[in-house]
């Protein structure tokens, strides 16, 4: 069966520090992968998506970046965090053409102080 | 991309049937309609998906009229554990339209004892 792993669950980082969040998917190949961010009490904002290794599309200009070094690995990074980067970060995947929608990871609660 | 409009919030009581309607006037021919449920500090969870008429699974029913410009998620006999945010999304599964699915603010359902 397919599973998605996302870590860490919570993270407190000072302003200006770097960030690296990792997401891995098991039990599938060539998934479409996504990073979303959710501010408190708000909907989900699509940040990046990837349809294959090394292929990254950005939806929102920001100081974040994403990379996909392996088929089932998706990484969200920042060189210098801002206070506004605080939020709930979610990784998701979907197999093209399926009828089961997205599968989301458990999320990372990032607080920038 | 088809934009969706949902009520911001709804209240119900245990044992009642809850119907949440979503408007998607610009839905495209190849778009499917998908509903997700999100609990606090968790990623959204797929509930149900449909293209037209009615779809039912063990959790909910989805009613889609012939013109497909709206859809209604029906939750039978809700319990306190159904308190969550419900999102309606539309997108094309076959051609990669899912690459840019955007989550709106969703409908915050509160079930009271």
Short recap of the structure:
The complex is a heterodimer of chains A (113) and B (113). Chain A is built from no helices and 11 strands. Chain A has strands at residues 3-7, 10-13, 19-26, 32-38, 44-52, 55-58, 64-70, 73-78, 87-94, 103-104, 108-112.
Task: Describe, in plain words, how this protein is organized in 3D.
The radius of gyration of chain A is 13 Å and the shape is globular. In chain A, a hairpin with a 2-residue loop joins strand 7 and strand 8. In chain A, the strands form two sheets. In chain A, strands 2, 4, 5, 6, 9, 10 and 11 form a seven-stranded mixed β-sheet that branches. Chain A has 113 residues and is an all-beta fold. In chain A, 0% of the residues lie in helices and 58% in strands. Chain B has a single domain, classed as Immunoglobulin-like, CATH 2.60.40. Chain B is built from no helices and nine strands. In chain B, strand 3 and strand 4 form a beta hairpin. The model of chain B has no long low-confidence stretch (mean pLDDT 89). The chains are: A mainly beta (113), B mainly beta (113). Chains A and B meet through strand 5, strand 9 and strand 10 of A and strand 3 and strand 4 of B.
What would you report as the Rg of chain B, rounded to the nearest angstrom? 14 Å
Mean pLDDT of chain B: 89
Q: Which sheet architecture does the biggest sheet of chain B show? A: 5 strands, mixed
CATH class bucket of chain A: Mainly Beta
Structural class from helices and strands of chain B?
A: mainly beta
Number of self-contained structural domains of chain A: 1
What is the fold-level CATH name, i.e. the topology of chain A? Immunoglobulin-like
The gross shape of chain B turns out to be globular
Please compute the radius of gyration of chain A using only Cα atoms: 13 Å
Distance between the termini of chain A: 38 Å
Number of helices of chain B: 0
- Return the CATH class of chain B: Mainly Beta
Give the total of beta strands of chain A.
11
